[in-house]
Design brief:
The complex is a heterodimer.
Chain A lengths: L3 E7 L5 H6 L5 H7 E5 L9 H6 L6 E5 L7 E2 L2 E2 H11 L2 E5 L1 H5 L16 E2 L2 E2 L10 E4 L6 H12 L13 H4 L10 H5 L29 H4 L7 H4 L21 E2 L2 E2 L8 H13 L3 H4 L6
Parallel strand pairs in A: 1-2, 1-3, 3-6, 6-9
Antiparallel strand pairs in A: 4-5, 7-8, 10-11
Chain B lengths: L1 E4 L6 E8 L2 E8 L6 H5 L7 H4 L8 H13 L9 H30 L6 H19 L8 E2 L2 E2 L5 H23 L3 H6 L3 H5 L4 H11 L11 E4 L9 E4 L2 E3 L7 E4 L8 E4 L8 H8 L2 H10 L3 H25 L19 E9 L2 E10 L2 E8 L1 H5 L10 H6 L5 H9 L5 H5 L1
Antiparallel strand pairs in B: 1-2, 2-3, 4-5, 6-7, 7-8, 9-10, 11-12, 12-13
The chains are: A alpha/beta, B alpha+beta.
């Protein structure tokens, strides 16, 4: 079996995507199909100095972390390294929200911090000529299934449908809300959520962004066992260009109505719907699910 | 001789200065920083719970727990249930174990001429990730510990599941790393006994003996531990003298001219942090024996990190038994954080050593935030007259490859060091 050669570059990052990738359950199968010419943690044939000084054959470029003109790796500007390999590879995959949209380090130590092809939602042109081979797999960190399956899709030359922010629709057409175990509470507007409980929806008071965030956290689950919202933590919207917003644990409201509504829902419809569903009093949603 | 050291959660350069063919001084440089402390300024206090795990991809959970402790210490009388305390301690233990496995199989193994064991590293660390996610929703980068407790509710089925994750990890550890029962290993008080097994640990120890590296990598023999919980003891020790009093005022952070990493010292002295320091304070029999014979050498350092896997797995099992599910996971603070103006400090033991977060709040807004990471202690770039812990450990060596080995026994984390 011919292995595809992959270069994993770390730009301005915390290495969170590197470690999320390690949680891919079938790493052995992955490594039978792909070979890292360089990876931030896994041993590779080439060193970082080789990568920046030579031109090594490569099929896919993965970039983790946001970029800035000032940022270097092994004394070479990261954008120069990216451009060198961008020319050669089949696809450029921005791994995580930093590489996709700029992410958390935008207000940090470097100037002009952006993603590879976007500055938040705005398209930028530093790598414009390579845009046709770009895929963004956002998330802070990215889910390992999304990363690995995207790479297999590239290997199998599948035509991936991307959304307008260049994310594969098969993972990002969903909302995080989809598959949340607290959905009944949302549907019937039971907003009695308290931290440390299995019950209640966090959309109304605790800043949960799941209904308007694109992603599959509740469909494919984290570490194969759970998700933030299932555990009782609001969705922080980490797959979106707006991550991180501010005041993450409370819901911004205008006249009692959440400012951000579920994807595709207008305010008037929402109010009508809320009025009807609130009329239900569903006993089992008013009490503890397990203990009493 | 300048050497680029990579695959240490980022990169560093070591500039080796030789005199008479021996290393006389090593200048340690980190070439970038992300400025997390600045990012936090002006933000709502609770947002730090989301931002701070992003200091580091491999030990972000320790940053979460240090953050929540720092914020909670801004309150006068905040109540936390025992249940929430135990759950936080468990997830932190799981992260430490996860880190130690990765260090052992990804970093350490190749330094002794073996192939990197990616699959062994990921097998064990993944189970620990599942255990954290069962409580915290996901790993890495959860923010499940919040001011007042934890967001999750735990059922008896969760406990069953987490118990099985611990057992599975113990089995893996016994079969692969130590080749003996965990209980026996914990009671072992003799380095020679640890040498005799067929496990992966013994393979490395045997090489250390064969190559006569037993005294390699000695530093000042000064240890410090700030994080305290049901298992770790805080205090400092110099050789065998222990003192328990560690006022934070004596912890000093200093800019380093040639690097983005700041140095950190206690009463102007550099101290080693990490598993060896913790074992010294806890007086772990096997590590005491190693230290008595070989001091703060790489042998003691490696043994302490591996030994801690056994201790933490064992301790986590008993912690799990103590969980009282009838308690609340979260107790809402009496005062909303938006009304709090105060300063606080939180310290925890992360995989690589003591991690300290300091915060000052004005009506719930972060005015100042300071993070002091373990590798800032161990990798402090001191002067020739007053060298840092790892600098001192490399002095006198003839070969920079061996110096790299010594350097990496501190489990270097570049992203944490610079944050």
């Amino acid at each position: 079996m011919k292995k595809l050669k992959v270069l994993w570059l770390s730009a301005l990052s915390c290495n969170g995507n590197t470690h999320a990738f390690f949680n891919y359950p079938n790493l052995e199968y992955f490594l039978e199909n792909f070979e890292f010419i360089y990876h931030p943690v896994i041993d590779s044939e080439y060193s970082l100095e080789d990568i920046v000084s030579k031109e090594i054959q490569c099929d896919i470029l993965l970039v983790e972390g946001s970029v800035s003109k000032e940022f270097t790796r092994a004394d070479v500007p990261i954008l120069k390294i990216i451009k060198k390999y961008a020319k050669k590879v089949r696809k450029i995959v921005s791994v995580g929200t930093c590489a996709s949209y700029g992410g958390i380090f935008k207000n940090g130590a470097y100037k002009d911090v952006t993603g590879l092809f976007f500055d938040e939602e705005k398209e930028i042109d530093i790598l414009q000529e390579f845009r046709y081979k770009a895929i963004n797999i956002s998330g802070c960190p990215v889910h390992p299934d999304i990363l690995v399956n995207t790479l297999f899709a590239i290997k199998q030359e599948l035509k991936l449908k991307l959304d307008n922010l260049l994310r594969p629709k098969e993972y990002y057409a969903y909302s995080i809300h989809n598959g949340c175990t607290r959905n009944e509470y949302f549907e019937y507007k039971v907003d009695n959520h308290k931290f440390g409980e299995l019950e209640g929806c966090m959309f109304y008071e605790h800043g949960c962004q799941a209904p308007f965030t694109h992603g599959s956290c509740n469909k494919i689950l984290w570490n194969e066992v759970n998700s933030k919202t299932r555990a009782g933590l609001p969705c922080m919207g980490c797959t979106e260009p707006s991550f991180p917003r501010e005041n993450l644990f409370s819901t911004k409201k205008n006249m009692g109505i959440p400012q951000e509504l579920p994807l595709g829902v207008n305010k008037r419809t929402y109010l009508t719907l809320a009025g009807i569903t609130k009329a239900f009093t569903i006993e089992r949603l008013q009490k503890k699910l397990i203990d009493d | 001789m300048i050497k680029l050291i990579e695959k240490i959660e980022g990169e560093a350069t070591l500039d080796f200065n030789f005199k008479d063919e021996k290393i006389e001084f090593v200048d340690i440089k980190f070439n970038s920083t992300r400025g997390i402390e600045n990012i936090l300024k002006g933000k709502n206090a609770l947002d730090a719970l989301v931002i701070n795990p992003r200091v580091c991809g491999i030990c972000g959970h320790a940053h979460l727990i240090a953050t929540v402790k720092a914020l909670e210490s801004c309150y006068d009388d905040l109540k936390i249930s025992k249940k929430a305390e135990i759950i936080r301690e468990l997830t932190l233990n799981f992260e430490l174990i996860h880190n130690h496995f990765k260090w052992f199989y990804l970093t350490l193994f190749p330094l002794f001429g073996f192939k990197q064991e990616v699959l062994k590293a990921s097998y064990a660390s993944q189970i620990m990730g599942k255990a954290i996610a069962t409580f915290g929703g996901q790993y890495p980068h959860t923010s499940y510990a919040i001011v007042g407790g934890v967001v999750c509710e735990v059922t008896s089925m969760d406990i069953v599941k987490i118990n099985s994750y611990i057992d599975e990890t113990i089995k893996f550890f016994e079969r692969n790393v130590i080749d003996v029962d965990v209980e026996k290993f914990i009671l072992c008080d003799n380095v020679e006994m640890a040498l005799k097994s067929k496990g992966d640990l013994a393979k490395i120890l045997q090489i250390i003996y064969e190559k006569e590296w037993v005294e390699l990598g000695k530093s000042y023999d000064r240890f410090i531990v700030f994080g305290k919980n049901s298992y770790f003891k805080s205090g400092k020790s110099h050789k065998t003298r222990i003192s328990k009093n560690l006022p934070y005022e004596y912890v000093k952070e200093e800019q380093n001219k040639s690097s983005f990493a700041k140095n950190v010292s206690f009463k102007d002295k550099y101290y080693e942090v990490g598993p060896l320091s913790r074992a010294m304070l806890k007086r772990i029999p096997l590590i005491k024996d190693a230290h008595r014979r070989y001091g703060d050498s790489i042998l003691s350092r490696i043994l302490a990190r591996v030994c801690e896997i056994a201790q933490l797995l064992n301790h986590s099992k008993s912690l799990l038994k103590e969980l009282d599910l009838s308690e609340a996971s979260y107790i809402e603070p009496q005062i909303d954080i938006s009304k709090v103006s105060a300063s606080g400090v939180g310290a925890v033991e992360a995989a690589r050593g003591s991690l300290i977060h300091k915060v000052s709040l004005e009506e719930g807004i972060i005015k100042n935030y300071e993070i002091i990471t373990p590798t800032q202690w161990n990798l402090a770039g001191g002067s020739r007259e007053n060298q840092g812990i790892s600098q001192k450990a490399m002095v006198g060596l003839k070969d920079e490859k061996i110096a790299e080995l010594v350097f990496k026994t501190f489990d270097v984390c570049s992203v944490c060091t610079t944050h």
